[in-house]
Design goal:
Layout lengths: L1 H38 L2 E6 L3 E3 L4 E10 L11 E9 L7 H15 L6 E7 L3 E9 L3 H9 L9 H13 L6 E9 L10 H12 L3 E8 L5 H11 L3 E4 L5 H12 L2 E11 L5 E6 L4 E3 L2 E10 L3 E10 L7 E13 L4 E14 L2 H6 L3 H24 L3 H22 L2 H20 L3 H15 L6
Parallel strand pairs: 2-16, 4-5, 4-7, 7-8, 8-9
Antiparallel strand pairs: 1-3, 3-14, 5-6, 10-13, 10-15, 11-14, 12-13, 15-16
């Protein structure tokens, strides 16, 4: 009997030890999973109202947010393959060109020995001042940049193409590929339409090359510049004074040096009955129940999002429906491995109007109306180009009123502030017409909003 009791005690001890061991292993697994989640890109999926009205089909907005982590402190950052393409046409003579050269040198000084750097200049001809090389021989490179002189017309397409050729020399390496294009005038040599440059940008993004455009003054073609940036997933800037060029170049390089994800691809799947209608503010593809979007890169601690308008079938009160599943894949530039993230969102249905209203996600609605406002800015430009100034002003005022209405309803300061800015823009255009400056401000604001470009 005693032996039996001893045997039972021994078995219990063994079970307890095994249980403790299992818990320890489980703890380790949980900690590892949490570590992977925290170090990678997080995917959040939200809907503009968590509770939808029961009894009827309706539209809703789904927001997919990619939260990029900060760059790892102990990891060496990905190397950069940077080509700077400078306009040296006659209109750049004097302070503009001097500031542009200062900006290029400032960018060079922020690079390290593992980075690649090249400089291309263009007027009616295109030439490579600094061929692609490691950013080590700083004094020699600076000397080459200082020797740049102004010339004739503006072969912008050729300049970007030559910059891309310099980047391609190291396309196979583990680099972040970027072209920074600066221009102050209208492209007048070679292909020169927004469509031409848009096609070039679309071709470059397929090679992993993004083009950031910097327009100086009020005489450059903002349609061309933004189309090139948009189609290659780069940034765009309107710089009224050349004094700001070094600051803009430094800020832009700060983004390029903090890339934490490359070749980002999103697939949004809607369950049967839920129909994707529109992608708001971004380029993408809708195919049946699926939506596909791509981004060239994400920067450290950056938040990028996509907005999808969907049609949702009738739901019964108390029912819960899945609305969207999202899968994200990307390349980790530190490990050079493919990583994934995912998320999903559902909605409940109710006949209680108060419950529906209280479930409003103001963060989603804010970004939705900001993007609609960006589209209104572009529409106002088109109306003005057609000689319809009054209609352009009315378009901006309507957008401002909608922003104000939603802002007052939810007591949201950001919406109210944006409404006030739009009212000011509308008033300025009403008094002075769509000047070159206002057109560039509207076009650049619209692009930066839709691209979630950090203001610099």
């Amino acid at each position: 009997m005693k032996n039996l009791k001893k045997g039972k005690k021994k078995n219990w001890r063994m079970r307890i030890v095994a249980l403790i061991g299992f818990c320890a292993v489980l703890s380790i697994v949980i900690q590892v999973d949490a570590g992977v989640s925290e170090s990678g890109v997080k995917c959040r999926v939200e809907i503009d109202r968590a509770v939808l009205p029961a009894g009827g089909a309706q539209k809703a907005v789904v927001k997919i947010t990619l939260d990029a982590p900060p760059p790892p402190e102990k990891s060496m950052r990905p190397a950069v393959n940077l080509a700077i393409v400078l306009d040296r046409s006659g209109s750049m003579a004097g302070q503009k060109l001097e500031r542009a050269k200062d900006a290029a040198i400032e960018a060079l000084r922020h690079l390290g020995p593992m980075d690649m750097f090249s400089v291309v200049v263009y007027d009616h001809n295109v030439s490579t001042v600094v061929s692609a090389q490691h950013a080590t021989n700083i004094e020699w490179i600076e000397g080459r940049i200082r020797q740049i002189r102004s010339g004739g017309n503006t072969a912008l397409f050729g300049g970007v193409s030559q910059g891309a050729a310099e980047v391609r020399k190291n396309l196979d390496g583990n680099y972040v590929h970027r072209i920074i294009l600066l221009s102050d005038g209208i492209a007048n040599v070679g292909p020169s339409s927004p469509e031409d440059l848009g096609r070039l940008g679309a071709a470059l993004i397929k090679e992993g090359i993004s083009v950031t455009t910097v327009g100086v003054g009020t005489d450059y073609n903002e349609d061309l510049m933004t189309r090139l940036s948009q189609n290659s997933d780069g940034n765009t800037y309107f710089v009224e004074s050349s004094r700001d060029l070094p600051r803009i170049f430094t800020a832009e390089l700060g983004d390029v040096l903090s890339v934490v994800a490359k070749k980002v691809h999103l697939i949004i799947e809607c369950p049967n009955g839920v129909k994707p209608l529109n992608i708001i503010g971004r380029e993408g593809r809708i195919k049946g129940r699926f939506v596909e979007l791509s981004l060239n890169q994400l920067y450290g601690s950056q938040e990028k999002y996509a907005l999808i308008e969907v049609e949702i079938p009738v739901g019964k009160s108390g029912e819960k429906k899945d609305i969207a599943y999202v899968n994200v894949s990307y390349e980790n530039p530190f490990t050079q491995k493919k990583e994934t993230s995912s998320g999903r969102v559902y909605a409940r249905f109710s006949k209680d109007r108060i419950k529906v209203k209280k479930s409003t996600n103001i963060a989603v609605q804010r970004e939705y109306y900001f993007n609609l406002n960006a589209i209104s800015q572009e529409r106002a430009i088109s109306l003005s180009d057609e000689g319809k100034k009054n209609e352009a002003v009315s378009e901006l005022k309507r957008s401002a009123n909608k922003l104000k209405e939603i802002g007052q309803e939810h007591n949201d300061e950001e919406l109210l502030k944006r409404a006030e800015e739009m009212e000011i823009q509308a008033g300025q255009i009403e008094k002075q017409g769509m000047t070159k400056k206002y057109r560039k401000v509207l076009r650049t604001d619209s692009y930066q909003m839709k691209n979630q470009q950090m203001s610099k």
